[in-house]
Amino acid sequence: MAARNVYLWHKGLIKEGLPLLLFTMLGFLAMGYHPGFEDDGVYLAAVKADLNPALYPHNSDFFRLQTQATVFDGWMAHFVNWTRVPLAWAELLWQFAALLLILWACRRIAAQIFPSVPAQWAGVGMVAAMFTLPVAGTALNIADQHLHPRNLATALILIAISRILESKRWQAIPLLFLAFLFHPIMASFGMSFAAFLTLALLEPSPFRAPAAIGSVAAAAPLGWIFAPDSPSWREALASRSYYSIYRWTWYEWLGALAPLFLFWLLWRVAQARGENRLARFAMAVFAYGVFQQVIAMAMLAPASLVRLTPFQPMRYLQLVYLFMALAAGGLLGRFLLKTHAWRWAAYLLIFNGGMFLAQWELIDEGAHLELPGVATGNPWLQAFDWIRHNTPTDAYFAVDPRYLAAPGEGYRGFRALAERSQLADGIKDTAVVMQVPSLAPAWHEQLAAQSGWPRFQLADFERLKAQFRVDWVLVSYPQAPGLDCRWHNDGLTVCRIP
What we know:
Elements: H1 2-31, H2 40-51, H3 61-64, H4 72-83, H5 87-113, H6 117-129, H7 149-165, H8 169-182, H9 184-200, H10 231-238, H11 250-272, H12 276-300, H13 317-337, H14 341-362, H15 379-390, E1 396-399, H16 414-418, E2 421-422, H17 428-435, H18 440-449, H19 458-468, E3 472-476, E4 484-488, E5 492-496
Parallel strand pairs: 1-2, 1-3
Antiparallel strand pairs: 3-5, 4-5
Helix pairs in contact: 1-5, 1-6, 1-14, 2-4, 5-6, 5-7, 6-13, 6-14, 7-8, 7-9, 8-9, 9-12, 10-17, 10-18, 11-12, 11-13
């Protein structure tokens, strides 16, 4: 009996584990991997500061204050210290693990709403291919191309949802609490959907939700969230149109409302066909979406509630888009793919190949997979690498405040990759200021001091040194006369300010 149980366990592991690994690998290859990209400029810098407190003696508040809302950086630092796995490999390991857990949870969810096995796996395959699908006007993808606490929180939320669908509701509570520790705002959306799904599954379905369910205001664990605004903070807010739905374009509105209509339609059709589980799941997504949409519009309309803008209530759509991919893939698997091998091959090639090409085009001048130990041909990453290995730990850099948008830079964070302090920038630090208004005056002062950067001469750099104690700069090559330059490539040079 024991031998038979071991045999069945191994058989089940191969039957479930190998397809999951395959889809995870396909999704990973399609989305790419870019440490230090976008939000990782904040989170990776925070992890490195935890591992080496001597780093970032200047301006560290531009990542430390925001990351107080999550255990992510401390948890990663403890993992690296405990396992002795180098941080670069640890981040890659957990990125892959997060994607695998997302797809494993999607498999469990699909098994509850689609009786057909091909439909279940087609849903998983669609989610994997659509990891980098943009979510309306929220500046989010379904998953990030680097390790982000949102990826881990999403995995935990989906596992909790699978527990609810499998009638193990109490197991969802610790999972949602753990998700909250990693990403409070996204976890609050997960809690909201879990409440709607629980109501939808009741017999009979009394679909009435108390007004308190899903309130994103509960997602704020720290007092600075409620700090008063200021002119500098409103300047930062004005630069981020995706924070306010009333500044969205018509197609961004379509991207928000069309999925809700599709889930309403799926609910009605599945109900008419007697597919109870699919109908109730679709009803839960629709009701959750309508509720959160109303909350978002109420939060973002009055000027008196402008300080609630950083809660980004429209990001509830991340779950809606993920479930839309799962449902769309499931329906394709059920009605079109079935067990036809050539159809499956075309399906995987079209969707994974299309998303791969989109990401290849998006991240210019860089490898699609930026793996540890692999040399880069990107001039910006070469400069960051030289700075990391050849400048003092306490070096304080000035960089073009709009360097993230420079051709070929690819939105990689200086602090995270060069591991040096930096004057405030006008792109990523703006988003941080939105979350932490107390940083707005310092951000505004530093940004104003760097105005006219492309025309800077030695006197301008000396002014920055006198005002902020900046002693190094990363500038275009050839540089302005008088700087003490130590390294350059075809486009950039690293110099000391005399």
